[in-house]
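Appendix B, record 7
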Amino acid sequence: MKLASFKLKSSGAPSIGVVLDQGVLDLHAASGGKLPSSMIAFLELGTAGMARARELAAHPAGPLLQQDEIELQAPVPRP
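Structure tokens (predicted):
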């Protein structure tokens, strides 16, 4: 599973997602806000966060973001 940090070009809002063949699944949006929009906060969730991300990525609901809709950021802003 490939994770990404990005900003939405339409609003500038930061988020995180899973890169899929068809586009990027916004994990924050797909989880109804239950998963954080920052990679550091997501990583702090540990295995529970990763498990939820895998579930969402296995059955993505709603439209996926395309490359022209996002601006990729450093995966972890402060490693």
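Remarks on this record: The chain is about 30% helix and 25% strand. The beta strands are 2-8, 14-20, 23-26, 70-72.
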